[in-house]
Amino acid sequence: MAIDAGASALGLVGPVPSGPGSIDEEKIATITRAIPPGVATFLLTCHQDASAIIEQHQKCRTSVIQILDRLVTGTYEQLRAAMPGIGIVQAIHVLGDNAIDEALALEGKVDAVLLDSGNPFLPIKELGGTGRTHDWRISAKLREAVSLPVYLAGGLRPDNLRPAIDMVGPFGVDLCNGVRTDGRLDQAKLSAFFAALTPPRSGL
């Protein structure tokens, strides 16, 4: 359904502390094998240990790893060496201007950053899928400050997508709750979201 609507990538959510859409690794691997060429597959992982991320990827075999929390043990170089050709995207939860410094520190280490509205400092971590927006003014400053491609996530819906894109100017957008009903993808919401991606035509 997502591919038919126009998605260029699918986010496949592994086990996470909270949020919608989590599926087991066997199902992620099954979906990944079925995806047609040209559509990227993102493994959303909450692991903070490089070895655990590598082991999880060996089971799932996606084309991209999206790290939802900070890498604590191991290095991005370790990930590169173990997973040649696999993209690495680091999520940054925009809680304030310190997100800009966090992104700058990732230059040369990852392929892109994804700006989300979670909070990894809560007792039960929020690592995405909150349905909340964050301060897009900070995201816009961050996007201008870094050379990395920037994905924008966090509470995006058909009605706020165009203002978000106009303010931030992201490389791409990430969606979750805004196109779901009762936890499942909603065809009508998907269609509305992708229609909103197309700028309005000007002229007579």
Question: If you had to describe this structure to a student in words, what would you say it looks like?
Answer:
The protein is α/β, with parallel strands linked by helices and 204 residues long. It has one domain (2-197): Alpha-Beta Barrel (TIM Barrel). Helix content is 33%, strand content 18%. The chain is built from eight helices and nine strands. The strands form two sheets. The chain has a seven-stranded parallel sheet with strand order 1-2-3-4-5-6-7, with helices on one face. Strands 8-9 form a two-stranded antiparallel ribbon. Strand 6, helix 7 (161-168) and strand 7 form a beta-alpha-beta unit. The radius of gyration is 16 Å and the shape is globular.
Search tags:
alpha/beta; TIM Barrel; single chain; 204 residues; seven-stranded parallel β-sheet; two-stranded antiparallel ribbon
How would you briefly describe this protein structure?
The chain is an alpha/beta fold and 204 residues long. It contains eight helices and nine strands.
Taking pLDDT < 50 over at least 5 consecutive residues as the criterion, the unreliable ranges are none
**Distinct helical segment count:** 8
Assembly form of the protein? single chain
Return the CATH architecture. Alpha-Beta Barrel
CATH homology superfamily name? Aldolase class I
What is the global morphology?
A: globular
Mean pLDDT: 93
Helix content: 25-40%
Strand order of the largest sheet: 1-2-3-4-5-6-7
Strand content: 15-25%
Total number of domains: 1
Beginning-to-end CA distance, first to last residue: 34 Å
Q: What is the fold-level CATH name, i.e. the topology?
A: TIM Barrel
Order of helices and strands: HEHEHEHEHEHEHEEEH
CATH hierarchy class name: Alpha Beta
User: What structural category do the secondary elements indicate?
Assistant: alpha/beta
**Number of DSSP-assigned strands:** 9
Largest sheet: 7 strands, parallel
Rg, Å, rounded: 16 Å
